[in-house]
Design brief:
Elements: H1 3-6, E1 9-20, H2 59-71, E2 75-76, E3 79-80, E4 83-86, E5 96-99, E6 106-107, E7 110-114, E8 120-132, E9 136-138, E10 147-149, E11 156-162, H3 169-185, E12 198-208, E13 218-223, H4 226-245, E14 253-258, E15 263-269, E16 279-280, E17 287-288, H5 291-299, H6 305-314, H7 319-326, H8 329-341, H9 345-362, H10 374-385, H11 391-404, H12 410-416, H13 425-438, H14 440-447, H15 454-464, H16 471-483
Parallel strand pairs: 13-14
Antiparallel strand pairs: 1-11, 1-12, 2-6, 3-17, 4-5, 4-16, 6-8, 7-8, 8-11, 9-10, 12-13, 14-15
Helix pairs in contact: 3-4, 6-7, 8-9, 8-10, 10-11, 13-15, 13-16, 15-16
The chain binds adenosine-5'-diphosphate (ADP) and magnesium ion.
The site of adenosine-5'-diphosphate has 15 residues, from strand 1, strand 11 and strand 12.
Length: 484
């Protein structure tokens, strides 16, 4: 489509995210909350919706909601009620879902992202509420039947509803990336979109730039990766522009996204709002969340990605470095401990993003499986920073030793494997002389003013010394030798 036409319109996006909580048992029963078990094995009479069974709230889900609420600076409600959302479906044996209607546990707050220009932007949150998941209907195993697995029925969820604050597919991508990072830092959800532990519905509309009113929105479901959320939004933007330009009307509808074709298709159009006949859940007491309870949880909050990011920026690290270091909680916490033992944050960051990342990628392990303690790694970094060892020798020889011999310090290993730098003047002199003898014409070039050739001699001395020549001292002595 012609860019000028698209340029007349503005995209509006609001996201609804469902996060499955990492509790041991389900939201209102003692059934195990575990993914991947044989179908219909995590199913007691409560999950199966047998008449006469009663729900009992799993306190952990409220605790997790408060943790999330605190991390996004939301208001946390004191008097929480549960409600029944009534509808019929084969994977919902009770005939209703327990959720929160008019009293969501959190309201307000925001998620910080970067907008299209790379400027910080706050995406507002409308609400976060507690609810239970439905079972799963499986349509693609049997050609004749739909299969039902109720292991998921009753698994605790938090629904995180954003304000319609995002203005591009990229902003939605950034928002979801932040939400996923946050729930992982808080250890309340594993954030795995492929397995459905984090799910997203995208609400999309467009309006002419400058217009006050929002256009009619559609809701896209079945988005199982952050990339697909962005693809679906970008597709919808184009589709809406085409329709409006052709004088057609966008209908309020629910769509599904096909990741194979990159296109959406309409599942149903809704003329009126669905009527779920919400009413207060008579089987559960209201949940009262006291100030003391909230303060107790505040004390156990882990460091948050945005706080660490700010901290690293203030230490003088680049936006890129601070971003990579805080992407993963384990990685950030390792860097935190490293900072206790090194003087220069920038070199610590370089080692994290270079050797450490390279090593864990190569071994296909998580940072939690990286056995070198921060203190031992700091020993190596300090050898380099103090000029006692060259970067190349440290990364190519000492670092691999450090990952192999876990009982020795960097100093011990350097000593034992003869990696200690040679600063002895006589030895350096002989290497320098040999290097100059090997390249007499280069010596002449240097002396005629081509000072850049110094690097060649440095390289040669390093080669002759197996990388052991003290680089600082060599550099200084080389200059003297060449200048004479
Ligand atoms: P529903 O239950 O009908 O999905 P909700 O209020 O739970 O409604 O969710 C509405 C979602 O749609 C919110 O994320 C909100 O930001 C978003 N939204 C509302 N209006 C628009 C609009 N015109 N364009 C895009 N998103 C919108
Ligand atoms: Mg919705």
């Amino acid at each position: 489509m012609i860019e000028e036409i698209k340029d007349k319109y503005e995209l509006i996006v609001g996201l609804e995210v469902h996060a499955q909580l990492l509790t041991k048992s389900k939201a209102f029963s003692s059934d195990r909350n575990e993914y991947g078990n044989l179908p219909n094995t995590n199913t007691n009479p409560v999950s199966l919706g047998h008449p006469g069974t009663l729900p009992v709230l799993n306190e952990k889900s409220a605790e997790f909601a408060v943790r999330l609420g605190l991390s996004v600076q939301a208001n946390i409600r004191e008097n929480n009620e549960f409600a029944r959302k009534n509808y019929f479906y084969a994977d919902l044996p009770k005939g209703y879902q327990i959720t929160q209607d008019t009293t969501p546990i959190c309201t307000g707050g925001f998620i910080s992202i970067k907008d299209g220009q790379g400027k910080p932007k706050k995406v507002g949150l409308t609400r976060i509420h507690m609810e239970e998941d439905s079972g799963k209907s499986i349509h693609d195993i049997s050609p004749f039947d739909t299969l039902i697995d109720l292991n998921r029925a009753g698994v605790p969820l938090l629904e995180i509803v954003s304000e319609p604050d995002m203005r591009s597919g990229d902003e939605a991508y950034a928002y979801l990336t932040e939400v996923r990072k946050l729930v992982r830092y808080l250890e309340i959800c594993d954030g795995n979109m492929e397995e459905g532990s984090l799910r997203c519905d995208a609400n999309v509309s467009i309006r002419e730039k400058g217009a006050k009113e929002f256009g009619t929105r559609v809701e896209v479901k079945n988005l199982n990766s952050i990339r697909n959320v962005k693809r679906a939004i970008d597709f919808e933007f184009n589709r809406h522009v085409k329709m409006i330009e052709a004088g057609e009307k966008v209908l309020k509808s629910t769509l599904t996204f096909n990741a194979g074709t990159g296109e959406t298709s309409i599942m149903r159009t809704k003329e009126e709002a669905d009527d779920y006949r919400y009413f207060p859940e008579p089987d559960l007491q209201p949940l009262v969340i006291t100030k003391d309870y909230i303060e107790g949880i505040r004390k156990t909050m882990p460091p948050l990605p945005t706080e660490l990011y700010e901290k690293y920026i203030n230490l003088g690290l680049s936006d890129y470095d601070a971003g990579v270091l805080t992407d993963n909680k384990g990685f950030a916490l390792y860097f935190e401990s490293l900072l206790q033992f090194v003087k220069n944050p920038k070199s610590a960051a370089n080692w994290m993003m270079g050797e450490v990342k390279g090593h864990i990628n190569e071994m296909a392990i998580d940072i939690s499986g990286f056995d070198v303690t921060a203190e031992r790694l700091a020993g190596l970094i300090n050898l380099v920073d103090s000029g006692k060892m060259g970067q190349t020798m440290a990364s190519q020889q000492l670092f691999p030793l450090l990952t192999k011999f876990l009982d020795n310090t960097a100093d011990e290993l350097a000593e034992e494997h003869g990696l200690v730098q040679v600063a002895n003047t006589d030895e350096l002199k002989s290497w320098i002389a040999a290097a100059m003898e090997r390249f007499p014409d280069k010596v002449a070039e240097y002396r005629s003013g081509k000072k850049g050739i110094l690097g060649l001699f440095m390289g040669e001395v390093m080669r002759l010394s197996d990388g052991k020549a003290d680089p600082k001292k060599t550099n200084q002595m080389l200059r003297e030798a060449l200048d004479n």
